[in-house]
Write a structure and sequence with these properties.
The complex is a heterodimer of chains A (713) and B (155). With 713 residues, chain A is α+β, with helices and mostly antiparallel strands. Chain A is 28% helix and 24% strand. The N and C termini of chain A lie far apart (88 Å). Classes of the chains: A alpha+beta (713), B alpha+beta (155).
Chain lengths: 713, 155
C-alpha cells in the first residue's frame, strides 16, 4: 500500500477556462487496516466521500444569506448522483482552488457564485461519479457502460448495487477523468427542485457561528471611534477618561480612527465614548448634501464620457413631435447589515490568523500580508457566517483595522464597529443625478433618448479596478447604458464627479439607482404618449424576448388591467442585471398623510436554468424588501462634513407591519444561469413610483420618496 | 459578582451592574446565539425572555435581570412553544443570513406563549420591533401561523 504518497496535484481545465486545482488524498487504509469515514475519498478540492457514504462538499464562497452553502452542494450532488440526505457542507479555507472563475480571486459578490461555479462544481461531481462507477465496474468485472448511478449507489444492469461508501477506497486509486461527461439538464434530479437550506438548523438554535461570535483565548475586544470622513484624521486625542474606564487595557490611534481595547465590549464601548477627539476633516469639512447635489447635477449636465452614441440625436430632436425632459436624483445609501462589521485577528510573529465574515477571503489574504508584513501563505482566513453582506463585507477596512490592532497590542483582538461608527465612516452606494431628454414621434414612440449621469466612480474607489479608457465607469452607467428599449437615436453619457464620501458596491450596484431613473422615465414617456405603461414597454421590447417574457408574465400574474380595490393602483418596471431578467408589478395606495402603502408585489424572473427555486423566490423577495426600504426611507445625508444618520432610528428600514405580500414567478428556461442575489432589487423603486404616479398623477423623481408631496390637501 | 438564572441554571458573573445583559450572555457565558445589532433596542436581534417576557438585552442592564428567569435562544427549545416555533421555522426554511433569527424566534415565542392563535395584527404588533434586512417577514409570519396550528392542536 502506497501510504506515503499522500498527495499529488493535478489540474482540471474547466470549460470556462478556469484551472481547478485537484488535491488527492490517498486512503490511509494501509495504516488503519480499514477505511473509515475519517479517511475519505477526496477526488478534488470540492468534495469528500466517507466510507459511510457521507458526502461533504467544500464551499469556497461566503454565505451571507444568498444560499451558496446549499447551491454549491446541489451542483456537486447533481452530477455525483448523491443521495441528498447524505450531503453536508463545509466552508473552505483560502486557496487558489476556490477562486471564483469570474473574478480570478476567492471572493463572493456580483451575484456570481452560481454563474461562476455552475460548470466547475458539476464537473467536480461528475469526475467523482465516473471514478466510483469505474471502481464498481472493476470489482464486478463488467463494462462501466453497463452501470448507472442513483442516490449514492452504483447499479449494474443485473441489479447488483454498491453504495458509494463501499467504493471510496478503490475509487481513490483511479485517475481523475479530465473531461467528465455532464448530464443533459433534462435528466437533473436535484437541480431545479425547491430544496431547504443546509445551513438552516444552526440558525434556529444559536449554534451558527458568525464572525462576531469568534472566541480566541486571551482576546481583547476593541471598539473604535472611526474617522467620520475618508481622509479625516484624529488631530488631537485625549484618552485619559477612556483609560480610566474599568476593563480598558489600551488605546491605539490608527490612521482610520482611535480604538479602545478592553476586556469586553461594554468596557471598550464606554472607553470609546469617553474619548475626546478633534477630527481634522480636511477637504470634507464643508461637505453638505446640497453641495453633493449641485456637483452631481453639474456632471449630469455636461457628461463627457460617452457610453452609447447611436444615430443622430440632434436631427432626431429637431424632427420630433413632442419632447420630454426630466432630472432624477438618488442619495448615498448605507448597507446596514444586521451584523455590525467586525473581525477577530491574531498576529503572532510572522503569521496572521483572522476569524471573520467577509465577502473577500482571497483578497484579504494578500492585503493583510502587506498590513502585517508577512507572506500571504502565512495569513490564515477562517470564514464564518456573514450576518448580511450586500457588498459592504467586500471591503477590507475592518480586517485591516483588526490586524493592525492585534499587531500593535500583541494580543488577539476582536474589533467591533458600532453601527453608528460604521454608518458615519462610509462605504456608501453612490449618490447620482441623472438628466434625461427624449423626443417622441407622432405615435408617441421615442425616437431619441439622451441621458447624462453625474455620479462618483466605484471603479476608482474600489482600489482594484480601473475606469476604462473611454472614461465610463461601468457601474455608474449600468442599467442605463444597456437599457433594452428600441430607440433609434441615443447619447448616453457619464459625467464623473467626486464629492468625497467613500463609495462602494451596494446590492445591485448601479442598477439600484439607474433602473429607478430609466424605468420611471419610460413611464413618463408612456404618460406623455397617453399609452398604457405596460403596453408601451412591450412595443419597445419586440427584439428583447427575455425582457418581454418577464414583463408579460408579471403583468399576467398581477392581473394588469383588471379592477383593484378602491384607492389601490399598479405600477410596473422591468430590468436585467447580473444575467437575470426581473419584472415587478407593485400595488400601492396612498394614506391621507401621504405615506405610500405597498400591498402586493408580483415578480417574474428569468434567471436561466435554476439551481434552487426556493432560494430564487426568497432572494427576489428579500431583494424587493431591500430596495423598498431604500425607496421609502434610505438616505445618507451630510452636514458640515459629517453623516447625519447613525442607526435604525434615523436610517429606518422596512419592518413586519409594512411588509407587502410578494409573489415570485419563475420563467422556465434552458438559458445559462443568471445571478439571483441582486436582480430583484432594481425594479421595485420604479414599480412603486409608477404606481404612485398612477394613484396621484405626481411623478416622484428623487429617492427616498418625498411623501410630503403626496399628502392629500 | 451577580447571580443570574440563565436557561434554568444559576450563573455567577463578574461584571459591572450597568453592563447590558447581551454582553454578559455573549462574553461571560459564551452564549453567542443572542446577537448584537444596534445597541439601542431598535432592531430586536438581542431579544431574550425575562420571566417569559421579551426584552432587548442590549439595553437591559444585568442589575435588572438578576432574580428573574432569563431564557435565550440556546434554551428556548426546551419549552413547548419554543420547540413548535423552531420546528415551524425549519419547515418554512425561514432564515437567509440568519443573524436576526434568534431574536425573531424569541419574539415569536413570547407572542405565542401569550396568545396561541395570534391574528395578523397581533403578529405585526409583536414582531415589528425585530428587523430582518434579508426580508424574511412573510416567512416569519407563515412560520408563526404554522407553529400556532401545532400549539392549538396540542392544547
Amino acid at each position: 500500500m502506497d501510504t506515503l504518497k499522500t498527495s499529488r496535484r493535478g489540474f482540471l481545465k474547466s470549460s470556462t477556462g478556469a484551472a481547478l486545482s485537484i488535491g488527492f488524498a490517498l486512503p490511509l487504509a494501509g495504516l488503519s487496516g480499514r477505511l473509515d469515514a475519517a479517511t475519505p475519498f477526496s477526488p478534488n478540492a470540492f468534495l469528500r466521500i466517507g466510507s459511510d457514504g457521507q458526502v461533504t462538499v467544500i464551499c469556497g464562497s461566503a454565505e451571507m444569506g444568498q444560499g451558496v452553502l446549499t447551491a454549491i452542494p446541489m451542483l456537486v450532488a447533481e452530477e455525483l448522483d448523491a443521495d441528498w440526505k447524505t450531503v453536508r457542507v463545509e466552508q473552505a479555507p483560502v486557496d487558489k482552488a476556490y477562486n471564483n472563475p469570474m473574478f480570478q480571486m476567492q471572493a463572493t459578490g456580483g451575484s456570481t457564485t452560481v454563474r461562476a461555479f455552475w460548470e466547475p462544481m458539476r464537473q467536480a461531481g461528475a469526475a467523482a461519479r465516473e471514478m466510483l462507477v469505474a471502481a464498481a465496474a472493476a470489482q464486478w468485472k463488467v463494462p462501466a457502460a453497463e452501470c448507472r448511478t442513483e442516490a449514492g449507489q452504483v447499479i449494474h444492469k443485473s441489479g447488483k448495487k454498491l453504495g458509494y461508501g463501499a467504493l471510496t477506497a478503490a475509487a481513490a486509486q483511479l485517475p481523475v477523468p479530465a473531461t467528465p461527461v455532464l448530464k443533459d439538464p433534462k435528466d437533473f434530479r436535484i437541480l431545479g427542485k425547491r430544496t431547504r437550506r443546509l445551513d438552516t438548523p444552526g440558525k434556529l438554535n444559536g449554534t451558527a457561528k458568525y464572525g462576531i461570535d469568534a472566541q480566541v483565548p486571551g482576546m481583547l475586544v476593541a471598539v473604535m471611534a472611526r474617522a467620520p470622513q475618508p481622509g479625516a484624521k484624529p488631530a488631537k486625542v485625549d484618552d485619559s477618561k477612556a483609560k480610566a474606564v474599568k476593563g480598558v487595557r489600551q488605546v491605539i490611534t490608527l490612521p482610520s480612527g482611535v480604538a479602545v481595547l478592553a476586556d469586553g465590549y461594554w468596557a471598550a464601548k464606554k472607553g470609546r465614548d469617553a474619548l475626546a477627539i478633534d477630527w481634522d476633516l480636511g477637504a470634507a469639512k464643508d461637505l453638505s448634501s446640497a453641495k453633493v447635489s449641485a456637483m452631481l447635477a453639474e456632471g449630469a449636465g455636461e457628461p463627457d464620457a460617452v457610453a452609447v452614441d447611436l444615430g443622430n440625436t440632434k436631427d432626431a430632436a429637431a424632427t420630433g413631435a413632442k419632447s420630454v425632459d426630466a432630472t432624477y436624483e438618488a442619495p448615498y445609501l448605507a448597507h446596514a447589515c444586521m451584523e455590525p462589521m467586525n473581525c477577530t485577528a491574531w498576529v503572532q510573529g510572522d503569521s496572521v490568523e483572522i476569524w471573520v465574515g467577509t465577502q473577500s477571503q482571497g483578497p484579504n489574504q494578500g492585503i493583510l500580508s502587506q498590513v502585517a508584513s508577512v507572506t500571504p501563505a502565512k495569513v490564515k482566513v477562517n470564514t464564518l457566517m456573514l450576518g448580511g453582506g450586500f457588498g459592504r463585507r467586500f471591503a477590507p477596512d475592518f480586517t485591516i483595522d483588526a490586524t493592525l490592532l492585534s499587531k500593535i497590542s500583541g494580543k488577539p483582538v476582536k474589533l467591533i464597529y458600532t453601527r453608528e461608527d460604521d454608518m458615519a465612516a462610509g462605504f456608501f452606494r453612490p449618490a447620482s443625478v441623472t438628466k434625461f431628454e427624449a423626443v417622441l414621434d407622432g405615435q408617441g414612440r421615442p425616437t431619441m433618448l439622451k441621458a447624462g449621469v453625474g455620479s462618483p466612480s466605484i471603479m476608482a474607489a474600489s482600489g482594484f479596478m480601473k475606469i476604462p479608457d473611454n472614461g465610463v465607469d461601468t457601474f455608474a452607467m449600468e442599467g442605463i447604458a444597456d437599457h433594452p428599449y428600441d430607440i433609434a437615436n441615443q447619447r448616453l453619457a457619464y459625467g464623473r464627479k467626486e464629492p468625497g464620501p467613500q463609495v462602494w458596491f451596494w446590492r445591485s450596484v448601479g442598477h439600484s439607482q439607474n433602473i429607478f431613473f430609466i424605468e420611471s422615465f419610460i413611464d413618463e414617456l408612456a404618460a406623455a404618449a397617453r399609452q398604457d405603461p405596460y403596453e408601451y414597454r412591450r412595443a419597445l421590447l419586440t427584439r428583447q424576448p427575455r425582457y418581454k417574457g418577464v414583463l408579460e408574465l408579471a403583468a399576467q400574474k398581477a392581473g394588469w388591467g383588471s379592477p383593484l380595490p378602491a384607492g389601490v393602483f399598479r405600477g410596473i418596471a422591468v430590468a436585467q442585471s447580473f444575467g437575470s431578467y426581473v419584472a415587478e408589478v407593485a400595488e400601492v395606495s396612498i394614506g391621507a398623510d401621504g405615506t405610500p402603502k405597498v400591498h402586493r408585489v408580483v415578480a417574474a424572473v428569468d434567471c436561466g436554468m435554476t439551481v434552487n427555486p426556493l432560494t430564487i423566490e426568497r432572494q427576489i423577495e428579500g431583494a424587493i424588501v431591500y430596495g423598498l426600504s431604500a425607496a421609502l426611507y434610505g438616505r445618507i445625508s451630510f452636514k458640515d462634513g459629517r453623516v447625519e444618520q447613525g442607526n435604525f432610528n434615523d436610517y429606518p428600514v422596512l419592518r413586519m407591519n409594512e411588509m407587502p405580500k410578494v409573489e415570485v414567478h419563475i420563467v422556465p428556461s434552458t438559458e445559462k444561469p443568471g445571478g439571483i442575489g441582486e436582480p430583484g432589487t432594481p425594479p421595485i423603486a420604479p414599480a412603486v413610483a409608477n404606481a404612485i404616479f398612477a394613484a396621484t398623477a405626481k411623478r416622484l423623481r428623487s429617492l427616498p420618496f418625498d411623501t410630503a408631496q403626496l399628502k392629500k390637501a | 459578582m451577580v447571580t443570574l438564572n440563565v436557561n434554568g441554571k444559576a450563573k455567577n458573573v463578574d461584571a459591572e451592574a450597568d453592563t447590558p445583559l447581551l454582553w454578559v450572555l455573549r462574553e461571560n457565558l459564551q452564549l453567542t446565539g443572542t446577537k448584537f445589532g444596534c445597541g439601542m433596542a431598535l432592531c430586536g436581534a438581542c431579544t431574550v425572555h425575562l420571566d417569559g417576557k421579551p426584552v432587548r438585552s442590549c439595553s437591559t442592564p444585568i442589575s435588572a435581570a438578576a432574580g428573574k428567569k432569563i431564557t435565550t435562544i440556546e434554551g428556548v427549545g426546551a419549552t413547548r412553544t419554543g420547540k413548535a416555533v423552531q420546528a415551524a421555522w425549519a419547515k418554512i426554511d425561514v432564515p437567509q443570513c440568519g443573524y436576526c433569527q434568534s431574536g425573531q424566534i424569541m419574539s415569536a415565542c413570547a407572542l405565542l406563549a401569550e396568545k396561541k392563535a395570534p391574528t395578523d395584527g397581533d403578529i405585526d404588533g409583536a414582531m415589528s420591533g425585530n428587523i430582518c434586512r434579508c426580508g424574511t417577514y412573510n416567512e416569519i409570519r407563515a412560520a408563526i401561523k404554522d407553529a400556532s396550528v401545532t400549539l392549538v392542536k396540542g392544547a
